[in-house]
Amino acid sequence: MIIKAEDRIRATLRANNTHIRLLLAHPMHSGRQMNADNILINAEFIQDIRCWRNENEVLVIKCGSGTSQNPYFSFELAGGEVGDTIAIRWVDNLGSKGNMDTVVDS
Predict the structure, then answer these.
(1) Main-chain dihedrals φ then ψ at residue 72, nearest 5 degrees
(2) What residues does 29 pair with on adjacent strands?
(3) By C-alpha distance, which of 76, 81, 75, 50 is closest to 63?
(4) What is the pLDDT of residues 69-102, one digit of tens each?
(5) What DSSP state is assigned to residue 26?
(6) Whole-angstrom Cα distance, residue 99 to residue 85?
(7) Global pTM?
(8) 57/44 Cα distance (integer angstroms)
(9) Rounded-to-integer distance, Cα 22 and Cα 69, Å
(10) Are 9 and 86 in contact (CB under 8 A)?
(11) Whole-angstrom Cα distance, residue 40 to residue 8?
(12) HSE-CB for 40 with a 13 A CA cutoff
């Protein structure tokens, strides 16, 4: 199942490094919250986030149930050039997937 949401990514070149900002639209339920009817909400959280630069995997992030709803990540990759392609792919514990791509700006 693919979650239809508004994930956002931005990549810029700063001091010859690629700075990436990433916002994932995901409920990130821990499995401990209750809904309005006092029924436990099943756990649903992103487990694995992977980043590629020009088809080379450069970063893996492992998450758990303690990660906040709609998580925001910001990180830098050494080097890079304007026009490089940055791709992000994520998978949650229920098998839902998301992906997004962007091009590095100056």
Answers:
(1) -115, 130
(2) 44
(3) 50
(4) 999 999 999 999 999 999 999 999 999 999 999 9
(5) -
(6) 13
(7) 0.88
(8) 25
(9) 13
(10) yes
(11) 30
(12) 6
